[in-house]
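REQUEST ID: PR-0412
SUBMITTED BY: lab tech R.K.
PRIORITY: routine
TASK: structure prediction, single protein chain
INPUT:
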Amino acid sequence: MIEHYFTCPYCWETISMLLDNSISKQIYVEDCEVCCNPIQITIQFENTELIAFQADNIEQ
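STATUS: complete
OUTPUT:
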């Protein structure tokens, strides 16, 4: 597990999230800990190193 900081696409607050680096590609929805809006998280690891991270507004 690694801690990753990013900006919420709704409220623009910086939040942190624990990412499981044992799974190479992941897409899931998690609520912002500040504004509670749903964020689609897309991440990719290569040899347990984070190579891609995207946090998207799903209510476009």
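NOTES: The chain has a mean pLDDT of 95.
REVIEWED BY: pending
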